[in-house]
Amino acid sequence: MKIGFLLCAIVALSVSNDAAAATRVFDVEMTDGVTLHTRVHTPNDNLEVPRGVVLIRTPYGAYSASETAHSFHAILTDAQYMNDRGMIYVAQDLRGTGNSGGEDTMRFVGDAADTYDTLAWIDEQPWSNGSVMMWGASGPGIVATLALQNPPANLKGVYAAVATGDIYSALFPGGADRAEVIEDWLVAHAGPGFDEVARANEANGPFWADGIVTDVEVQAHTHSVPTLFVGGTQDIFADGTVDVWKQMVSHGFDSSDHFLVLGPWTHGTVLANPLEGGGRIGTIKFPTQSFYQPGGGVDSTLYFNAFSGWILGGGAKPGWEQARVHRTQILDEEAFITELRVQASWLQSTQWPPADATPTSLFLIPDGGLGDAAPVTPGQLSLLSDPSDPVPTVGGALLAENATNGFGGYRPQNQLLNRDDVLLFETPTADSAVDIIGEVEANIWASSSTSDIDVHVKLVQITNDNLYIHIADGVRRGRFAHGTDQLRSLTPGEPTLFRVDLGPVSIRLRQGHALAVIIQATNARRIGVNPQSATPLADDPSPIVATLTVHSGPNTPSAIVLPITEGVVPAVEVSTSGGDTGDTGDTGDTGDTGDVVEDSALDGDSGVGDDTSTADDTNTADDTNTAYDTVVDIGTATGGDPGCSSYSGGSASGATRIPLPFTLLCAGLFVVWRRNNAQASKRNNKRRRR
Fold first, then answer.
1. Which of helix, strand or coil describes residue 505?
2. What is the DSSP string of 193-204?
3. Predicted structure pTM score
4. What does the pLDDT look like over 152-176, one tens digit per residue?
């Protein structure tokens, strides 16, 4: 191996107080002479015995990442956890961070070269047996993912959570600057001026090339690098997580070596203990089964042990299906006492999106409906976008969930519906359950009164109590409507196709619920406010007011495209001879069949038991609006939820029906009365808006 340039200087040797492990500190020299602070934690029985190595490279401090973090155990640090399992744990400060030397021009871009050098150094050490697995969540997960650009032979596996293999798209989704990352995180963690560097490179050019895993790089692998990617549909890196997994499946050495776990999580809840956050993702409370935690629907400890045991310990390959995806069904309202509002199911498949996902378009209608066909008569709706009064961010994929950015996740959008700069389009209510599982995109024909404008698209679920809950969203900046490779001005007043990716979605639309599409020109502070002229951001242009017009009709068929795997999506029936015939609803389906529910053990076995249960889908009682189901049937499907004292669980055949005390029965009747009133109010509100 070409490692003659690597020098290792032992600058400290310390044996921890715990007799089971030893910590050694090194400065590891890179090709260009910069040294990186590296902490090596080894089991203390024999410091020189060759072992498998877990490597984490982090911008948040090598000491913190190994000696204070508790990613897999409530008591053991990550280093101790790895050492107890016979693995060596190596933690390293990235270039320009912590105690490492050097500087970088943009966080994560070009970091794969340092990863390569570090892996080569590890390969020379007497304590390494030649097998290394990289792991990490968020920033360290991004570093691990980007190692796939140029992996040396001793990199045997990558395990990354809430990460991406495309730094440009993470900072500029749809070409729009993600302000909460560029202006907040990047400045706070990389330093002042990095935001200016990012804005000076708002087009996807050569500057970003070393921060993007490409198909060509994956195809060039001379050995198999198995991967396990964990992501959340409400995470800022949801697209990046899914995309790099699909790259590995399509272009990697062995497609069956790559695994995806896709949950309902935001960036901050993927490794969160549901007991600490109240089990809420946004304002919606999820059952324990929905979380990636010991005892959750997917057990993070069992997953880590099975994957690392295969990669480093010579164990059997896990018997999981390649994709395990959480299906979220938001119930009519919160369950009495427990406040749970989600029925959770874990589905599994050999691919993503699912093979049976049928792209189904809902077309925007000028009267505020979503139709099954484009209107035959051209129409349009307009809004005035004032950069001094942008639409505030409410819910969705946020890096940091706090009061200053409106919080993330599944949150009602009701507070935005009365704004004049928000357009709303709705379906009728669903006659039966509809599964929307796959990747959502929107094709919006829009024009601006100026040379640039943003089109933000949100997919929203309308519940029986009239909450407009955020499901997914995306953006396309006008200057990049024809590609992100360079800035191109819009022609004022000319309809242009804005292709908007809303990312992965996995929901079951409950009977009686409806869908909505919200279109707006701003979403602050998540996305930087477009100055609404096609002047480079680096020139700091003065913002101007603009009119966004959304077009519909046969030549400008604005629509959102949904992946439907079960049922018929509700839509307004549009006449092909002119006009529409009103809200007819959908034709229904023949019942819930075919989807599978996983077991709760997920212990790396052959997975045979995971594929046999269809109870979640055949439990028709779960889809009826009775007092019993509202109060009790929270549908954990694989063992119940320990937070609900009235649910016995313990069965994969659907919720266990138990006798209700008289008091709960009365409460249930009250809930039904309240729901009926909410439905009436919802219908009245729709009439008033239209």
1. strand
2. THHHHHHTT-S-
3. 0.83
4. 999 999 999 999 999 999 999 999 9
